[in-house]
Amino acid sequence: MTSSSKKFDLPKLPVIESCYSRYFGLTPGGVDLLAALAALPLDALKTLHDLLCDTTRAGGRVFIMGNGGSFDNSRFIADLFHRQGLICKTPGRPECYLQARTSDEYAAIFRRGLEEDRLCCNDLVIGLSGSGNSPNILEAFKYAQAQDAKIFALGGRTGGAMRKITGDQRALIVSSDNMEAIEDLHSACGVILAKMLERKESCTDVHAKFISALKRCLTPQTIQGMARLAHELLRTMRD
Predict the structure, then answer these.
(1) How far apart are CA 170 and CA 162, in angstroms?
(2) Please, are residues 63 and 89 in contact by the beta-carbon 8 Å criterion?
(3) Which residue, of 23, 59, 76, 202, has the fewest CB within 10 Å?
(4) How many angstroms separate the CA atoms of 71 and 50, rounded?
(5) What digits encode the pLDDT tens for the residues 103-133?
């Protein structure tokens, strides 16, 4: 074993299991994702569902954008909506983001994508950001407003500057200060919305079914399995 590897002591399996259990809220003292899911603002979720339906009826498109984990969530949610018949994607072409970053700087990435897609007044632009202060989302929102397109914020914490642009009526701010939980909650919102579009069921019913299904999955065996996987990944990284 090298001297560098000695500096990293692998956490024991019970410790990792405890972290997962506290993260989901099965034991107290952690993030408590289940409580945050139960506290989702359903009125805001219903507003976004109605915007999606109105956009589709008007022949408009849905553009979803975010950075880092929120970029992955954007693509995930866009795919869920696409399966329900919506015209939905991330702005522009991801392979062109580096070019936009190089020529116009980071803040222009999504605005340039919306320009490439010829954003119009029938379209809806959804921004995902844990802080709500991502410059490229803020610039894209301002550009969308200039084109009379609809905008909606999926945020966390206080909602940041993104919430100030959209206003409270067009914002869904999840109840968490933890970035990982915020991103998990955003993906959960995407799944719930897709199920609402698919089943034509109420927001309250789909939300309750989602939480019930997640609780059924969070067995001791599932937590142990996740802990073992995390332990092996950490050991591989160390080695």
Answers:
(1) 10
(2) yes
(3) 59
(4) 23
(5) 668 888 899 999 999 999 999 999 999 999 9
